[in-house]
Amino acid sequence: MSKASSSNPAPSPEREAGSAGPSGAQAILRAITLLRAVARTNDRGARANALAAETGLSVATTHRILGVLAQEGLLTHDPYSKLYHLGMELSVLGAAAQEFSIRDRLRPALEQIALEVEDTIFLLIRSGNDAVCIDRVEGSYPIRTLTLDIGARRPLGIGGGGLALLAFLPDAQLEAVLAANAQRYSSYADFTADDIRRFVFEARELGYALNNGILRPNVAAVGVPVLDADGRIVAAVSVAAIPDRLPEDRQERVAEIIAHHVQRVWGQRVRNTADGGP
């Protein structure tokens, strides 16, 4: 080997992604390259064609790898916007190294809420302009509303938990999210940003988010925000049920049950009906 060739720097994973090499190692390298590319635009998401152009991979190869990554939960894919984002499985892998993750801390509360209300409980966090479901506990009531799988992603403002995450953001962040998601809302019951803003004001007045079958006529939900020590929202816990299970006279009680059990394990004040406003 000549001196000149031995001094050449090793190629980066991105430049090497399309080079020849063992098929298994090459596939892994390409997958890592795509994950990094998605991560760089995770707040707004990325489409397959743009990712192919950025990484130098063919469109067909990019689609194939993205499909596998989404299937395994490392990425999520919104069928309406065609955007890819980082998936919850990455958060799960990262959280495994942490003593206290949000899901670990709140899991006992979710189980207690499910025992008491007997319906399905969801835990959601914010990811950019989306709400992501990171845990779910099914209640004992025989008619179950499994509207979200773990790892599922929706625009902030959609559903009880997603609305709770949005409603209790500071006004500037709220308006930025509404502007970013305006076109996406039309895919959900033809909502507009003004509709979501109206739901936000209603949630702030109540102290919790309420979905009275406006997204799906056979599903109702109550969502309660979870705050950190500085009063910033970090998660939302929601209860979803058939509308007959959440009549008006039970909605506030369910919100109080959520707040009670979350506060016991979270150690911080949880917004309830007495708080009102962001």
Provide a short characterization of the protein structure.
The chain contains eleven helices and eight strands. By secondary structure, the chain is an alpha+beta fold. It has a six-stranded antiparallel β-sheet with strand order 5-4-3-8-7-6, sandwiched between helices. A two-stranded antiparallel ribbon has the order 1-2.
Key attributes of the depicted protein:
alpha+beta, 16% strand, 8 strands, six-stranded antiparallel beta sheet, disordered N terminus, 278 residues
Description:
The protein contains eleven helices and eight strands. Residues 1-22 and 272-278 have low confidence and may be disordered. It is α+β, with helices and mostly antiparallel strands. β6 and β7 form a beta hairpin. A six-stranded antiparallel beta sheet has the order 5-4-3-8-7-6, with helices on both faces. A two-stranded antiparallel ribbon has the order 1-2. α3 (23-40) crosses α4, α3 packs across α5 (59-71) and α7 (102-117) packs antiparallel against α11 (248-266).
Helix and strand layout, with pairings?
Blueprint: H1 3-6, H2 13-16, H3 23-40, H4 48-55, H5 59-71, E1 75-77, E2 84-86, H6 88-95, H7 102-117, E3 120-127, E4 130-137, E5 153-155, H8 159-167, H9 171-185, H10 193-206, E6 209-211, E7 220-227, E8 233-241, H11 248-266
Whole-angstrom Rg: 21 Å
| Strand order, sheet with most strands | 5-4-3-8-7-6
Task: Tell me the total number of β-strands.
Answer: 8
Q: Report the β-strand fraction as a percent range.
A: 15-25%
- Alpha-beta content class: alpha+beta
Number of contiguous helices = 11
Taking pLDDT < 50 over at least 5 consecutive residues as the criterion, the unreliable ranges are 1-22, 272-278
Alpha carbon gap, first and last residue? 67 Å
The helix content is: 40-55%
Shape: globular
Largest sheet: 6 strands, antiparallel
Q: Which sequence of SSEs, written as H and E, runs from N to C? A: HHHHHEEHHEEEHHHEEEH
Mean pLDDT across all amino acids: 84
